[in-house]
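Quick one:
INPUT:
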């Protein structure tokens, strides 16, 4: 039987690449760099399925071709706002993602960021490495207590709920959530959480606000100067969702004028380019999009994408279809 032709756009964990090579006529990425729109147009003519990830901007330009051979985009990652769904639909392409398998690790990283920002861990590490530490003193790098405080979670899907589990059951935090739809009372009850009326209602009530909503046009600049002004003066903003959810210019203003306590970002608008004003801010913790970066999660993401591939080529609906 002829094996389906499959293109993987970036290097994947070795165990998954080996399994893909067993089951499919696969072309693996050697260069491991983001593909350009013209490269996608060519790939869509040659391959039955393409396996992209967040660094692949598959917008209208990449989709400008007639009668593509590709009928499945099995994305490696849970977020898929880098893929133009209306164009995919117009071409009859099915798009899938890899939910669940990265929720715990992404929530672990959001906790890491929250603790780092509150306890000034980035500043402390820089001080030690640069040889500036002069020894213990009662007023040295004094941060903010996390345990028992109130955490606002924006977007109460799988990752948001894992964040609530850690914060509530591990750190005794009170949880307030904002979500597009009503969250079932039995889910809220697991974390003794309450659902805010809307985002503007949540922000002034929280010591920490962690973003777990999708990116894309719908949530672009959801956090802007007006909403930053609604946050408590000492509050911290954590983003492991997508860079575009925050207006970074407005965030820099809030940090500079100390209208909020600090922020911690794992994702950036236009990443991997980071605005100099962000780099210059000492009240900001920054990581290079590490949310799902554990050996365990990254393998599981690959195997989850393969489940979608197998189902599709077996003539079934892939389990993680998003369009
Ligand atoms: C995700 O899974 O969406 C991660 O951010 C990587 O794309």
């Amino acid at each position: 039987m002829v094996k389906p032709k499959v293109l993987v756009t970036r290097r994947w964990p070795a165990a998954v690449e080996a399994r893909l090579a067993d089951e499919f006529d696969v072309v693996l990425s050697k260069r491991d760099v983001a593909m350009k729109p013209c490269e996608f147009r060519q790939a869509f003519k040659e391959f039955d399925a393409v396996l992209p990830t967040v660094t692949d901007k598959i917008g209208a330009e990449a989709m400008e071709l007639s009668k593509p051979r590709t009928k499945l985009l099995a994305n490696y990652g849970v977020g898929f706002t880098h893929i133009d769904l209306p164009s995919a639909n117009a071409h009859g392409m099915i798009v899938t993602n890899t939910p669940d398998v990265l929720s715990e690790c992404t929530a672990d990283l959001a906790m890491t960021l929250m603790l780092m920002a509150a306890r000034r861990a980035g500043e402390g590490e820089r001080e030690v490495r640069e040889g500036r530490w002069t020894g213990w003193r009662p007023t040295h790098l004094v941060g903010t207590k996390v345990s028992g405080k109130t955490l606002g979670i924006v977007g109460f899907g799988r990752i948001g709920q894992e964040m609530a589990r850690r914060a509530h059951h591990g750190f005794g935090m009170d949880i307030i959530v904002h979500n597009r739809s009503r969250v079932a009372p039995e889910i809220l009850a697991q974390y003794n959480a309450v659902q805010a009326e809307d985002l503007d209602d949540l922000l002034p009530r929280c010591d920490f606000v962690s973003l777990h909503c999708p990116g894309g046009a719908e949530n672009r600049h959801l956090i802007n100067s007006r909403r930053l002004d609604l946050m408590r003066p000492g509050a911290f903003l954590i983003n492991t969702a997508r860079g575009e959810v925050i207006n970074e210019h407005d965030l820099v203003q809030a940090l500079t004028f100390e209208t909020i306590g600090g922020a911690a970002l794992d994702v950036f608008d236009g990443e991997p380019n980071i605005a100099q004003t962000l780099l210059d801010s000492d009240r900001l913790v920054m990581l290079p999009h590490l949310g799902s970066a554990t050996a365990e999660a990254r393998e599981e993401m690959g195997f989850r994408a393969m489940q979608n591939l197998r189902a599709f080529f077996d003539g079934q609906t892939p389990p993680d279809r998003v369009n």
